[in-house]
From TrEMBL:
Domain of life of the native organism: Eukaryota
Pfam family, one: Pro_isomerase
Any single GO CC term annotated in Swiss-Prot or TrEMBL for this entry: cytosol
Every PPIase cyclophilin-type domain range: 139-261
Organism, scientific name: Paramecium sonneborni
PROSITE patterns according to UniProt: CSA_PPIASE_2
Gene Ontology process terms (BP): fructose 1,6-bisphosphate metabolic process; fructose 6-phosphate metabolic process; fructose metabolic process; gluconeogenesis; sucrose biosynthetic process
Protein name: PPIase cyclophilin-type domain-containing protein
GO function term, MF aspect, one: peptidyl-prolyl cis-trans isomerase activity
InterPro entries in the cross-refs: Cyclophilin-type_PPIase_dom, FBPase_class-1
């Protein structure tokens, strides 16, 4: 057994280094099992029928697009077409034209396999949403905190956001400052070199090697024990980084797509759009729950389509000119188009581009404010009296939605429309609607005191239910507020402990309306809050935002205004309101 050299380092005199360990001993003692996407993303092995008939499905692709199939992709099209390897009586046979239909059992088994795999790892995971030339690419990072606990903790804190010496630091919205093709990208730079430990912190371990792409480590100042906030991601094997820089993690999902994009051409704008801790157990269970299909119900016979429904509503108002009806039809049609590609990044980009092009020619609306990128579109026709705020895609995980809100222009037709026309009272809303995408895609549309729900069936929205009403029993709760005294007190008294969180506010809203529950969000846009408050007011629920539970008192003072939001049953929202009033 060779001796381990102990080097004296300030703050940690017993720090162990692995440089002098024999290669065989190091591999035997600190072996790190590599994990590739193929281990759980692209292989689903199922035993079907009996022991003599086995079907192995490898790297399937959905029919709706040509992107690589993963378990996070949409299952809107349940049938895939791909050459399959059929093993019968020990003889492999390729069936190129065989079609296999996804079943609930197959999907559940695949996710249960992922959950078992993650539980065996016992590591920490972080999720990042990288923006490359305004295109989003999600990645999941595994952190080996068994070998580098201080480095991993430092990385997690900066991903979540941390206050150091009275100043807030976060990787979110920061840029990668260095990009070397076939080398690495480097980000996490702030105005000064800082860590959660104050300044520099020491190298902990060189156990993880830079032997493949996707390795994450902390950059230093050219010599050991100078780690801070800056980190790098390797784009190829970098063996000359070994024993010089501390690697503490690896990208386990999404790296192949990042490499494919970066190899196409030079990219100067690589931004961390969003980041945070990834709870793999909660995410996988959420995906399993998604396929139980909470919102499915049989359509009534001879039900109306949405177009016929809105036309019938128009006939009830003799003064109606038809512009509002055509505008609502246009917005709902855009949601139907988005539903086809909402889980495909390339398809979604084309759908939004088509929205931009088609809106310019519309005759029924003057201005369209897109909340996703705060883009303002002006129509050629400036004689219309309506203005619209539109959320193309809400949510980044397996639950996504779209929404719109329609106002009337308050100034004369001769005055040029601008974003200040949105600064109105909530009671002046003409109409609103949101659409939740999934196996059952549903649209909720409200105008006046009416609130109706439609289900997408045969590529057309059909009337499912009128006069929605929130259930009186809470079946779940959802929150993105951390370490809040009021929240903890409310959750303790809730009759349910079923926690179901998604970053899509409208998916959560739909669950509250259909299933009954309580949702608490720290910061949402004022437009999202008004849509939620409008829906709850028409479905016998309550909401608390912008300092009031009264829908008509909510006012848009700034189009970028953020507010807290609580939605649910009256008794819980009133307790929250009383708590806020007691503080004031």
């Amino acid at each position: 057994m060779s001796k381990i050299k102990v080097m004296s380092v300030t703050g940690n005199p017993d720090l162990l280094h692995f440089k002098n360990l024999q290669l065989t001993e190091r591999k035997k003692t600190y072996e790190i099992q590599e994990m590739h996407e193929s281990e759980y993303d692209h292989q689903v092995k199922l035993l079907k029928r009996n022991a003599s008939l086995r079907i192995q499905i490898k790297k399937l692709q959905p029919l709706c697009n040509q992107e690589p199939f993963t378990m996070d992709d949409s299952f809107m099209s349940k049938t895939v077409k791909r050459p399959l390897l059929l093993i019968q009586n020990g003889t492999p046979t390729v069936h190129s034209n065989r079609r296999v239909k996804f079943t609930q059992t197959m999907i559940s088994q695949a996710y249960e396999s992922q959950l078992k795999f993650f539980n065996q790892r016992k590591n920490t995971y972080v999720q990042m949403m990288l923006s490359i030339d305004d295109q989003l690419y999600p990645v999941i990072i595994e952190l080996f905190n068994e070998f580098t606990p201080k480095a991993c903790d430092n990385f997690i804190k900066f991903c979540e956001g941390v206050n150091i010496e009275g100043q807030f630091y976060s990787y979110k919205k920061s840029k990668f400052t260095k990009y070397k093709p076939n080398g690495f990208i480097q980000g996490g730079q702030f105005d000064k070199k800082i860590s959660i430990y104050g300044g520099y912190f020491e190298d902990e371990s060189y156990a993880l090697k830079h032997d493949c792409e996707g390795i994450i480590g902390f950059a230093n100042d050219g010599f050991q024990h100078t780690n801070h906030s800056q980190f790098y991601i390797t784009l190829a094997p970098m063996p000359f980084f070994d024993y010089k820089r501390v690697a503490f993690g690896k990208i386990i999902r999404g790296m192949k797509q990042i490499l494919k994009v970066l190899k196409q051409e030079q990219h100067s704008d690589i931004v961390i759009y969003d980041c945070g801790r990834y709870d793999h157990q909660a995410q996988i269970r959420l995906k399993l729950e998604k396929f139980t299909d909470d919102f499915y119900s049989n359509l009534p016979e001879n039900t109306q389509s949405f177009n016929k429904f809105i036309e019938a509503e128009q006939l009830k108002h003799n003064e109606a000119s038809g512009d509002f009806t055509q505008l609502v039809k246009y917005l709902v049609e855009q949601m139907r188009i988005i539903s086809k590609s909402v889980y495909s990044l390339t398809g979604l980009k084309k759908a939004i581009q088509q929205l931009n092009e088609s809106f310019v020619k519309t005759q029924y609306c003057q201005i369209l404010y897109i909340l996703d990128n705060q883009q303002t579109l002006l129509a050629d026709n400036q004689q219309s009296k309506y203005i619209v705020a539109f959320r193309a895609v809400d949510g980044t995980d397996s639950c996504r939605a779209s929404a719109f809100i329609i106002f009337k222009k308050q100034t004369t037709i001769f005055k040029q429309v601008n974003l200040n026309d949105f600064k109105q009272q909530a009671e002046q809303i003409t109409s609103m609607g949101y659409c939740v995408y999934g196996q059952t895609t549903q649209l909720v549309f409200g105008t006046g005191y009416n609130l109706s729900m439609f289900t997408l069936h045969n590529n057309e929205f059909k009337l499912q239910q009128q006069e929605l009403q929130i259930p009186k029993k809470e079946t779940f709760y959802s929150s993105n507020i951390k370490d809040d005294f009021l929240q903890n007190k409310i959750i303790t008294n809730l009759p349910t402990k079923n926690y179901r969180y998604t970053d899509s506010i409208f998916t959560t809203l739909h669950r509250v309306v259909r299933l009954g529950g309580l949702a608490m969000y720290k910061e949402v846009t004022i437009f999202e809050a008004i849509i939620c408050a409008f829906t709850l007011a028409r479905s016998w629920g309550w909401s608390f935002c912008d300092g009031t539970t009264t829908f008509n008192q909510i006012k848009i003072r700034d189009i970028k205004q953020l507010t807290y939001l609580y939605i649910g049953q009256q008794k819980w929202i009133q307790k929250i309101e009383n708590h806020f009033l007691s503080i004031v």
